[in-house]
Design goal:
Elements: H1 7-20, H2 28-79, H3 88-114
Helix pairs in contact: 2-3
């Protein structure tokens, strides 16, 4: 059975779809060359994305280390490297409170810098 759609119409539809993809090609050879360019560009972007993801993971780990360092420094300065009247419950409360404050502070700075405010 012969296709009810003419080959000229099929060619026009194909050209329209190729144009919508942003590929300007007049011959099959040009089309294949453009397709190869797209594949290569995708591979390059994929490598960049992987690199950026690794960089982000390293930065997040560094940020966590900084937060922990500052938490310890604040905790030590508040407690003076000693127990307050030997009351462990008070110490735990102070440590939790300081942890929350430092985390909130760093998160606020991160949000403001992400928004371009600081």
């Amino acid at each position: 059975m012969i296709c009810p759609i003419s080959s000229k119409l099929c060619t026009c539809i194909c050209n329209l779809l190729v144009f919508q993809l942003g590929i300007c090609a007049n011959t099959p050879t040009e089309f294949l060359a453009k397709a190869k360019e797209i594949v290569l560009k995708h591979k390059e972007l994929d490598v960049k994305a992987g690199t950026l993801q690794r960089d982000i993971a390293h930065l997040e780990a560094d940020q966590l280390k900084l937060v922990q360092f500052h938490q310890r420094a604040i905790y030590d300065s508040v407690l003076g490297n000693s127990k307050i009247n030997g009351n462990k419950q008070v110490n735990n409360y102070i440590q939790f409170d300081l942890t929350e404050r430092v985390s909130y502070s760093y998160n606020a700075v991160f949000v403001l810098s992400y928004q371009g405010i600081i």
